[in-house]
């Protein structure tokens, strides 16, 4: 029983990071219809940047992250304007191919700027609490709390603010929104800004909890899509639920089935859901 | 059809050129690169069937290449079957696996399909790496045999020994066959249906076409070519491990097809040769190469959605100042 | 490429005329380093390439290689194989065909090295392998392939005996088990552990890219082992050491990871690493080796502004093996003659690593394999400390290696 609870707790921490990544993906996908595969590599960039801020300026994790997030947001807006907007009216597959190209560029850029060695962001949260046989690492708690906070902020932003309303209008019906006077270009930029800021946060948390290295970004992007598909494309609660479910499933599968095939689990889940229940756990239609 | 004749002339010239190539560049190194490029052409022609003709971008081509490579290697090494036989069996078995994978996944469209194929490739890669008992895992399988001697028209062709000229000729023959096959498909009724699906799948369905059959056909044929390329690759390099069959390789194949021109016959050839020789001509460090490839992919999709070959073809027409021949591909801007 | 004939004749005539002016028969011998200079394998490949350059410069400074009547100065060209089998094949093809290299050194990484070894028998060349630990590279018995680094399972059995002596009877293994040579290490380890009445209670795996091993460690914790064995790349292994403590798994930790202090401290604190063992080839352990090692360390630091990695001397020694073999063979033009000379070569006096002599005092055995000693290292107060040698029998292993040749 102890083992089970421990595995679940371990999985929640990594699951909350998956949720953050998926949230960034789902706002872009649900609102703009773009399968923004480069999100993972952008998240890594944000993580690396956070590391640079924390080592060169001696700032703690959250301060560095707060500095890196606006940078990431700007980068995201640039990508939208230069790479995705030109193909906005072309078939969706073109946007996906561009996303693949952007992934390569960002991975190459990260390699050039930050090197191939793994990078770990140091934090002061080193304590471990023994709760009746279940070992709770302070750092994991911090990650969970941070993710929850960010998710809450973004949800409030989208539900309560005027910008949020415009964004949701575009998601529902782009042409109608245009007719209602919504500035679609502005909405696109805002969506990418939010998505990229979230990505940066996810990258920073991964850098603190685990490590940043070449290739990690792609793997997170794929898992992010797995969460999207599991939870239902375009659904916010779906992304939240899906992320936690994926994290915990991976942990349980590695713990009770086979650690060698751990990553296969997420892909198999994704394939199965897509084929059997394409709308996901919470999706509409 | 005038276009067909012009392409035929170009193709014959290209094949003749390819045959003469080893005698111009005597260096075994260039023969080696060209052999790899020819194997890539087979891959790219396959990718073109789904990406260019039907319009479904599969990110699993490298995975199927790996399946073909391993099936052939294991059959020849564990069961003593001749390479000539596995050159036929392995691609066919790869096709069978593609039917199993493709049948359910072709029901989803657009980028959902692409993401599923991405997942397939990742699963294939992880299984190849982890199932050590069967595949040797990351350490790989050494000593993969070359094809046995072939006696044709009284001449003995050996594939062992220092010279790889004969293997080059084998790869060339297979590449030609693959291209001819794709040409036949393109100009057949099935080919026209596939192109119609690419233009507008809903419309094609409304016209009564059972699109699923054609999509599956393209997907399976594409994977058979991938399996063939994999078999050629394994028996050429002589060492097999999962490394060349990851997602990055599938992305390179997509790039090759887009760069050359999807939906054409010469496009994949141009793309495959470019992608093989580009790293040699541009001796960049890994990071620059990734950025360059990515940039090419982005720029090509935005500005040259039909690729280089149609661009060159229209430049050629413009230069000759003749009436532009109506291409059978209406410009939809689809990549 | 056809050269214009009159121009060629003129050039030949000119060089013939100038010949007596050149230094008495001083020729250039090109050696090719094929290694992972970029990408994930560069942590092993780049230091090897550096070591080769340093050895070549040293040899040139002391007069070069005397082969018969010809004196050779060494020229080193490097080629990046990115630790990728296809790249490696291209890279070596280029070295042999385009650059006319007969002597290949370096080879840090198993996958790419195996790909090259598979066609090396056909080539007019000699190949000296370094850090790549995959057993089949020398198990195949290719006449012109030699390796200065011992296969992983040679160290594995020594480690098994050691850990059994320490009293462990239920060992949980967590490692990069998809990689052949790590599993071979564990299998050899298990054999010795079983002999002492112990057993392996778990074999959990992690990949090169994995950083979260808490699921595997939680499972291991439930099995209540009295020791854990961590085999694999330093990057994920460091996380294993940390996460084990985070999960309350407080048993002796043994490993085969070969990482430097810097690499571990990026991930784990020194206090968390305290007491961890590393059971690996002695490699560049100054305390355990001779004055050559001290000199190597000092020279490397001066030349490259960083400390040499533990496995870099494998490549350094390769160059001295070549030098001595070429001098013995009396020629550098006949690769086969040189290969034969390598086969019976006594341990070079310039070698940095400590090699165990094979039959006749030769550095390589009948399989082309050299054996360095194995050691037990322990993390004590922020540094890896050499505690003792692991008893190893290279003659027995050599027979075993010969017996598995197909």
Question: Would you tell me the overall average pLDDT of chain C?
Answer: 88
Class from secondary-structure proportions of chain C: alpha/beta
Kindly state the number of beta strands of chain C. Answer: 13
Strand content of chain C: 15-25%
Q: Into which percent range does the helicity of residues of chain A fall?
A: over 70%
Summarize the main sheet of chain C.
7 strands, mixed
Silhouette of chain C: globular
Strand order of the largest sheet of chain C: 8-7-9-10-11-12-13
Specify the biggest β-sheet of chain A.
2 strands, antiparallel
> Which class do the helix and strand fractions of chain A yield?
mainly alpha
Low-pLDDT residue spans of chain C: 1-5, 8-13, 15-23
Which two chains have the most extensive interface, and how many residues on each?
Answer: A-B, 41 and 45 residues
Molecular structure report:
Chain A is built from eleven helices and two strands. Chain A has a two-stranded antiparallel ribbon with strand order 1-2. In chain A, helix 2 crosses helix 8, helix 6 crosses helix 8 and helix 9 runs parallel beside helix 11. The mean pLDDT of chain A is 88. With 335 residues, chain B is mostly helical. Chain B is built from 14 helices and two strands. Chain B has a two-stranded antiparallel sheet with strand order 1-2. In chain B, a hairpin with a 2-residue loop joins strand 1 and strand 2. The two termini of chain B are 25 Å apart. The model of chain B has no long low-confidence stretch (mean pLDDT 84). In chain C, helix 2 packs across helix 13, helix 3 packs across helix 4 and helix 13 crosses helix 14. Chain C is an alpha/beta fold and 406 residues long. Chain C starts with a helix and ends with a helix. The N terminus of chain C is likely disordered. Chains in contact: A-B, A-C, B-C.
């Amino acid at each position: 029983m102890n083992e089970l609870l421990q595995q679940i707790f371990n999985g929640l921490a990594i699951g909350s990071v998956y949720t953050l990544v998926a949230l960034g993906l789902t706002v872009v996908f649900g609102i703009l219809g773009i399968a923004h595969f480069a999100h993972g590599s952008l998240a890594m960039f944000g993580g690396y940047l956070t590391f640079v801020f924390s080592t060169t300026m001696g700032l703690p994790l959250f301060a560095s992250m707060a500095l890196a997030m606006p940078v990431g947001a700007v980068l995201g807006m640039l990508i939208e304007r230069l790479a995705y907007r030109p193909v906005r009216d072309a078939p969706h597959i073109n946007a996906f191919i561009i996303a693949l190209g952007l992934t390569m560029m960002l991975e190459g850029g990260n390699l050039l700027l930050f090197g191939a060695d793994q990078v770990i962001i140091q934090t002061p949260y080193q304590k471990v609490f023994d709760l009746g046989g279940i070992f709770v690492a302070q750092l994991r708690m911090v990650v969970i709390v941070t993710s929850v906070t960010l998710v809450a902020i973004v949800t409030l932003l989208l539900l309560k603010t005027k910008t949020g309303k415009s964004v949701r209008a575009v998601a529902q019906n782009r042409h109608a929104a245009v007719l209602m006077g919504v500035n679609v270009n502005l909405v696109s930029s805002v969506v990418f800004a939010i998505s990229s800021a979230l990505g940066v946060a996810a990258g920073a948390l991964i850098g603190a909890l685990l490590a940043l290295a070449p290739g990690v970004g792609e793997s997170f992007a794929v898992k992010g899509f797995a969460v999207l598909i599991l939870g239902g494309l375009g659904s916010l609660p779906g992304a939240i639920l899906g992320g936690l479910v994926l994290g915990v499933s991976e942990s349980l599968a590695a713990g009770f089935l086979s650690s060698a095939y751990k990553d296969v689990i997420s892909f198999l889940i994704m394939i199965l859901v897509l084929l059997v229940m394409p709308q996901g756990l919470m999706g509409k239609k | 059809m005038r276009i067909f004749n012009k392409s035929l002339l170009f193709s014959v010239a290209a094949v003749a050129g390819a045959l003469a190539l080893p005698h111009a560049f005597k260096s075994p190194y260039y023969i080696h690169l060209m052999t790899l490029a020819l194997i890539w052409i087979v891959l790219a022609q396959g990718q073109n069937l789904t990406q260019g003709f039907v319009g479904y971008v599969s990110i699993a081509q490298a995975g199927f290449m790996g399946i073909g490579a391993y099936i052939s290697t294991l059959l020849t090494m564990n069961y003593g079957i001749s390479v000539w036989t596995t050159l036929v069996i392995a691609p066919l078995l790869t096709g069978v696996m593609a039917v199993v994978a493709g049948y359910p996944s072709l029901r989803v469209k657009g980028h959902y399909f692409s993401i599923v194929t991405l997942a397939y490739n990742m699963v294939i890669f992880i299984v190849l790496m982890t199932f050590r008992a069967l595949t040797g895992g990351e350490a790989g399988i050494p000593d993969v045999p070359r094809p046995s001697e072939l006696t044709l028209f009284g001449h003995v062709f050996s594939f062992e020994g220092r010279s790889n000229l004969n293997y080059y000729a084998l790869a060339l023959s297979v590449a030609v066959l693959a291209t001819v096959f794709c040409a036949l498909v393109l100009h057949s009724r099935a080919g026209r249906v596939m192109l119609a699906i690419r233009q507008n799948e809903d419309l094609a369905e409304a016209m009564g076409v059972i699109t699923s059959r054609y999509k599956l056909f393209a997907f399976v044929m594409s994977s058979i070519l991938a399996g063939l390329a994999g078999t050629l690759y394994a028996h050429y390099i002589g060492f097999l491990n999962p490394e060349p069959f990851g997602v990055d390789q599938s992305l390179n194949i997509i790039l090759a097809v887009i760069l050359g021109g999807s939906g054409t016959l010469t496009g994949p050839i141009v793309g495959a040769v470019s992608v093989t020789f580009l790293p040699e001509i541009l001796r960049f460090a890994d990071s620059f190469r990734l950025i360059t490839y990515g940039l090419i992919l982005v720029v090509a999709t935005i500005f040259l959605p039909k690729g280089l070959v149609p661009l060159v073809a229209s430049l050629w027409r413009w230069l000759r100042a003749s009436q532009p021949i109506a291409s059978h591909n209406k410009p939809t801007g689809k990549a | 490429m056809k050269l214009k004939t009159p121009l060629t004749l003129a050039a030949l005539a000119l060089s013939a005329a100038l010949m007596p002016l050149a230094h008495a028969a001083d020729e250039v011998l090109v050696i090719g380093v094929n290694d992972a200079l970029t990408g994930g394998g560069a942590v092993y490949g780049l230091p090897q390439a550096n070591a080769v350059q340093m050895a070549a410069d040293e040899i040139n400074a002391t007069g070069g290689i005397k082969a018969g009547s010809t004196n050779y100065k060494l020229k080193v060209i490097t080629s990046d194989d990115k630790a990728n089998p296809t790249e490696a094949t291209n890279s070596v093809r280029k070295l042999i065909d385009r650059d006319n290299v007969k002597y290949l050194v370096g080879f840090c990484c198993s996958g790419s090295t195996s790909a090259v070894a598979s066609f090396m028998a056909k080539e007019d060349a000699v190949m000296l392998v370094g850090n790549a630990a995959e057993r089949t590279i020398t198990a195949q018995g290719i006449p012109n392939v030699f390796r200065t680094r011992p296969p992983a399972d040679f160290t594995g059995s020594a480690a098994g005996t050691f850990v059994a002596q320490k009293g462990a009877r239920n060992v949980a293994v967590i490692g990069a088990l998809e990689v052949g040579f790590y599993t071979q290490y564990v299998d050899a380890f298990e054999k010795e552990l079983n002999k002492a009445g112990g057993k392996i209670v778990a074999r959990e795996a992690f990949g090169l890219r994995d950083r979260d091993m808490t699921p595997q460690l939680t499972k291991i914790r439930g099995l209540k082992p009295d020791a854990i064995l961590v085999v694999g790349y330093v990057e994920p292994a460091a996380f294993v050491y940390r996460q084990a403590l985070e999960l309350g798994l407080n048993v002796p930790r043994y490993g085969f990871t070969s990482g430097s202090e810097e690499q571990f401290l990026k991930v784990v604190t020194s206090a968390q690493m305290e007491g961890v063992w590393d059971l690996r080839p002695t490699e560049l352990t100054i305390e355990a080796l001779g004055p050559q090692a001290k000199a190597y360390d000092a020279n490397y630091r001066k030349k490259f502004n960083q400390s040499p990695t533990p496995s870099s001397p494998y490549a350094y020694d390769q160059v001295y093996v070549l030098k001595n073999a070429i001098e013995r063979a009396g020629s550098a033009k006949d690769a086969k003659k040189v290969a034969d000379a390598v086969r019976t070569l006594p341990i070079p006096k310039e070698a940095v690593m400590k090699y165990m002599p094979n039959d006749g005092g030769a550095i390589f055995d009948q399989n082309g394999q050299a054996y360095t000693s194995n050691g037990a290292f322990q993390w004590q107060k922020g540094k890896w400390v050499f505690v003792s040698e692991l008893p190893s029998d290279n003659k027995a292993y050599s027979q075993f290696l010969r017996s598995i040749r197909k």
